[in-house]
Amino acid sequence: MISIEGLKVEFGTTPLFEDVSFVINKKDRIALVGKNGAGKSTMLKILAGLQQPTEGVVAVQRGITIGYLPQVMILSDTRTVMAEAEMAFEHIFEMQEKLEKMNQELADRTDYDSESYHELIERFTHENERFLMMGGTNYRAEIERTLTGLGFNRTDFDRPTSEFSGGWRMRIELAKLLLRRPDVLLLDEPTNHLDIESIQWLENFLKMSSGAVVLVSHDRAFINNVTNRTIEISCGRIYDYKVAYDEFVVLRKERREQQLRAYENQQKEIKDTEDFIERFRYKATKAVQVQSRIKQLEKIVPIEIDEEDTSTLRLKFPPSMRSGNYPVICENVKKAYGDHVVFHDVNLTIHRGEKVAFVGKNGEGKSTLVKCIMDEIPYEGKLTIGHNVQIGYFAQNQAQLLDENVTVFDTIDRVAKGDIRLKIRDILGAFMFGGEASEKKVKVLSGGERSRLAMIKLLLEPVNFLILDEPTNHLDMRSKDVLKEAVKEFDGTVIVVSHDREFLDGLVTKVYEFGGGLVKEHIGGIYDFLQKKKMENLNELQLSQSPQTASPKKEEPAESESKLSYEAQKELNKKIRKLEKQVADCEAKIEKLEEQVAQLEEQMATPEGASDMKLYEQHQQLKKQIAEAEEEWTLLLSELEEMK
Predict the structure, then answer these.
(1) What is the pLDDT of residue 561?
(2) How far apart are CA 136 and CA 313, in angstroms?
(3) 90 or 443, greater pLDDT
(4) How many CA atoms lie within 13 Å of 201's alpha carbon, on the beta-carbon side?
């Protein structure tokens, strides 16, 4: 679908990467990985045609459409959600306007027997068929289905986009992209502002997508669940692995070990050669051999080693005074903006040393409760902060509080105490401020860089209660590992507001779920919570199907209940196997239909085929069958996941 050959990109005189060649095939799901600054976003922009390489060719197969979701969105605040989503169908509106003009011309003209009139009729028929084939009459229903699938209520459709948070605005842009149905999806950090439920929805969508996907993401669980191929940009080159991310990590480690051995052997060879030259440089009898060794040395191409893995770096929070036993107690806390109640009757107690997660859809009040705890906004009810609690708070706006006129190094040097001062360069390197980047002034840093710097600053301050609001949004995987280890070893209390399952896994022991104005407590880690949610949904499904099983007779012995449970499990497994077969059959059907569509489109691209109306009718019927099959596939897959 897309062929990349001999790609080179330079900024100034330094190449970002060079001699890069690879091919993107249909149904490839590619994770583009590498350290921050390696060129991942640049590569996506080049593939999207938004940036030109210094050298090389990007060849896109004829007729292939490309959809690109950038990290930073530009949404008009003058439109409603529905109007913004309708922008995906601009081509439909243009075609509709063109057809109306042609129709008016047909009505106005009276030269019915002329050749030009007959040509106009043919042109109108051809364009009208194309219009119907592209879904010109049912686009609004498709928009509603997509927006509803992404979590919007019908009451949201007429609200202006300016009323929505970053996460919901991302979904609007994502909806537009999906509605265009491009053959290749390019996604740059699509999960940054999505909640856990919408990330799982996006995972399912990408799995069922018939086109190719190239994505950049620091969400390890997301890329593991979606991708089947990993391309790493490292040391200005690419390494292409036909495996998912976890397998890539293992293979990458092996590759680095091989590089290290080759590097060490080369260094020994260079040293031995240099020693020989130095020893016999002035001996006439060895002159020929010395010259030979000098030429040999000049021909050696230095072996480059991939970036050092800094995830082994350990950060430890400086000691602080011990807090009281209950750092936070909420009693009947309520927050409302006018008639809109964000949450009510919040009763929770966080014990000293606990590490808890706040999760839920965007806009359900996670950050709002954090602001109540920080006493930044008024609220109803009673909220008590415990004795001797020293709060370290990280939010995106913390980056705005940095002194813009000092360097990155000086920012950290001012807060570092004791032995940690000797490790400042290592710490900065772990958070992607290595080398010359540490001498940059804060005022020239991007928003993401400022967030990382604010995070390092927080890690070095003596606190006993950490509140981290989306701490991983601008961190790469290695930086996240460093942060996660530091938080795990922190002996104080922690609240993490995050959608990153991999980051929360093994870190938190309690989850507070925000939704519908309530805050529910779940004991256990993030995957215990997700499993429980699926079980809750399954139980609800079973109860709705078999209400008589909801209240078993009290006189039934425990043995009978066990037997019933076994029988129910057996029946469930049977249903799962049946659904799996139906899903596989559906996928095979879709694949077959898509092949037929591709063959038809080849015929329609010829001069003879372009005027054959029967081909357009067949094409429209096949597209309709594909849409029905995909809808059936989605329902089956949803039912299967619910049962599992």
Answers:
(1) 38
(2) 57
(3) 443
(4) 17
Distance, CA of 313 to CA of 32 (rounded, Å) = 25
The predicted structure's pLDDT at residue 74: 62
The pLDDT tens digits of the residues spanning 502-538 come to 889 899 999 999 988 999 999 998 888 888 877 554 4
Helix (H) or strand (E) holding 586: helix 558-604
8 A C-beta contact, residue 461 and residue 401: no
Pair of tokens at residue 364: 């359900």
Q: What is the pLDDT of residue 383?
A: 93
Mean pLDDT value of segment 371-377: 89
What's at 102, amino acid-wise?
Answer: M
- Mean pLDDT of all residues belonging to the chain: 79
Q: Is-contact 278 294, C-beta < 8 A?
A: no
User: What is the C-alpha to C-alpha distance for residues 409 and 441, in angstroms, rounded to an integer?
Assistant: 9
From residue 185, give the alpha-carbon distance in Å to each of 19, 65, 168, 188, 390: 24, 9, 20, 10, 46
Residues 123 and 99: beta-carbon distance below 8 Å: no
What does the block give as tokens for 384?
């008590």
How many residues are there in the chain? 644
The mean pLDDT of 134-153, rounded to a whole number, is 74
Is residue 508 packed enough to be buried (19+ CB in 10 Å), middle (13-18) or exposed (0-12)? buried
Spatial separation of the C-alpha atoms in residues 484 and 478, rounded to whole Å: 10
Q: Which amino acid is at 154?
A: R
CB 207 within 8 A of CB 192: no
* Alpha carbon distance 530, 221 (integer Å): 13
Q: CB of 519 within 8 A of CB of 378?
A: no
Tokens 């699926």 sit on residue:
534
Most confident of 193-197, 438-442, 563-567: 438-442
Return the HEC string of 499-521.
CCHHHHCCCCCEEEEEECCEEEE
Q: Which pTM value belongs to this model?
A: 0.61
Tell which residue, 395, 339, 323, has the closest CA to residue 366.
395
